[in-house]
Specification:
The protein is α/β, with parallel strands linked by helices. It has 11 helices and 8 strands. An 8-stranded parallel β-barrel has the order 1-2-3-4-5-6-7-8, surrounded by 6 helices. The longest helix is centred in the middle third of the chain and has 16 residues. The structure holds 2-phosphoglycolic acid (PGA). The site of 2-phosphoglycolic acid has 13 residues, from strand 8.
Length: about 250
């Protein structure tokens, strides 16, 4: 049986302040051992990356960003932040294709797959978010939607690209709503995602971390994380509370 390292990632979204960043990180650091066999990852907003990077120096917690520019080189792209800059700040990961970016900022599967490629070219591990809306689920389209979202990246980047990427299954109806997919619902889609990668490359499929996101909290984390194909969590709201986030981490 393949052992995949559990990954618990905190997506702070547009929340926080300088002080809050320092407080949260200092509370979290006490709960993560240097030789922990799970990975904790924090994705604060851009302006706090520097403070976070300083606070995490020589700590076992990893740093990531929530978004990345589609352009590989610096230039006239007002408001954008490049992968190179994120690397400079000490980021190892970047979230791409979060449903909020797809829905609110018009990111298509094409844009998302470009960002995925740019991230890897800069040495960042993309966390590719996929997931269906409630309407799509009710119409029985969950697998078709997820297949399209992943297939676009396979077509553009190749299946081998998933040897240095993470996939986050985040049903849109569960994000920030308090509704969580049941462990069986999560497992069903996670195993479907793994089978999609396996159609291309069984080894990569067995190694890729597939994490769950959508109202994960301390009270439901253990059950979700105990499913065979759930390798961690992408946590929004609950990652802003050190106690909650540490409890989820410990459940992994
Ligand atoms: P949530 O967000 O945990 O607040 O539902 C998860 C996410 O959007 O990544």
């Amino acid at each position: 049986m393949t052992v995949r390292t559990p990954l618990i990632a905190g997506n702070w979204k547009m929340n926080g302040s300088t002080q809050r960043t320092q407080q949260l990180i200092s509370s979290l650091c006490s709960g993560v051992a240097d030789d922990d066999d799970r990975i904790m990852l924090l994705c604060p907003p851009y302006p706090y990356l520097h403070i976070a990077a300083e606070a995490l120096k020589s700590k076992a917690i990893m740093l990531g960003a929530q978004n990345i520019a589609m352009e590989p080189d610096s230039g006239a792209y007002t408001g954008e932040v490049s992968g190179l800059m994120l690397k400079n700040f000490g980021c190892e990961y970047v979230i791409v294709g979060h449903s909020e970016r797809r829905a609110l900022y018009g990111e298509t599967n094409e844009v998302v797959s470009n960002k995925f490629i740019i991230a890897q070219a800069q040495g960042l591990q993309p966390i590719l978010c996929v997931g269906e809306t409630l309407e799509e689920r009710e119409l029985g389209q969950t697998q078709a939607v997820v297949r399209r979202q992943i297939q676009k990246v396979i077509d553009s980047a190749g299946s081998a690209a998933f040897s240095s990427a993470v996939i986050a299954y985040e049903p849109v109806w569960a994000i920030g709503t308090g509704l969580t997919a049941t462990p069986d619902q999560a497992q069903e889609t996670h195993s479907f995602i793994r089978s999609l990668i396996s159609e291309q490359d069984a080894t990569i499929a067995s190694l890729v971390q597939i994490i769950y996101g959508g109202s994960m909290k301390s009270e439901n984390a253990k059950e979700l994380l105990s499913m065979d194909d759930v390798d961690g969590g992408l946590v929004g709201g609950a990652s802003l509370n050190a106690e909650e986030f540490l409890a989820i981490f410990q459940a992994a």
